[in-house]
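Aim 2, interim progress: modelling of the coenzyme A-bound target.
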Amino acid sequence: MTTLPLPLGTERLRLRLFTPDDLDDLYAYQRLPEVARHLFRPPLTRDQCAQSLDRRAAAPAWTEDGEALVLAVCPKDEDRVVGETVLKLESARARQVEIGWIFHPAHGGRGYATEAARATAGLAFGALGAHRLFARLDVLNTASARVCERLGLRREAHLVENDLDGERWASEYVYATLAREWAAREGGSGPDPLTNGLDLPSVP
Ligand SMILES: CC(C)(COP(=O)(O)OP(=O)(O)OC[C@H]1O[C@@H](n2cnc3c(N)ncnc32)[C@H](O)[C@@H]1OP(=O)(O)O)[C@@H](O)C(=O)NCCC(=O)NCCS
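Predicted structure of the complex, ligand included:
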């Protein structure tokens, strides 16, 4: 993998790899039922958080389908973790990357998730060479849908009862954007290597 430009800095936040010292902060939000509510799984135990930290400590090679890069999000001048963003390489061949975010509710409603997700999307389209970035979310997860919309992702699909959340059939939205659309809106990520910057349709 190209050397990642980590940590990422934004106006108010710093995004870095997790370390074993982050266990208390990670467990503080992953243990909450309201955080897990739309993730189609139970809250995590402390042991599960500790195991996940082992996997999160290093950046993946970014060559195999299913590899994930999870970033700890900290307020700029503190080392405490208030949430996380994740990029998952859905298809290495087609450069399809899934993005996700989870934040402690105590730090919600300040735009942190949107700010961190924007920086993470920039990393996906920049150093990680994504062609298309997408998010999948429970249709009931209105806060997450608003994050997608603030980022300019397009709602591309409404999957109906495609998953089971305990006893409830769950439906999902898929939101997405392409590298050239992101570059036109946000700038900086450069041309899609496959098209070499040529023949770019105008973004609606
Ligand atoms: C999804 C999740 C990250 C969204 O959190 P959030 O706090 O709504 O999102 P942000 O941090 O971007 O904050 C945005 C809100 O802060 C407000 N805000 C306040 N001050 C702000 C500022 N200075 N700058 C930007 N926004 C600000 C915005 O108006 C917005 O409010 P609105 O959505 O009511 O319009 C959070 O609900 C969560 O972690 N949920 C559990 C895990 C989960 O479901 N993850 C997604 C799986 S797909």
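Residues 190-204 have pLDDT under 50 and may be disordered. The pocket of coenzyme A is lined by residues 35, 38-39, 100-103, 108-114, 137, 141, 143-144, 146-147 (CB under 6 Å).
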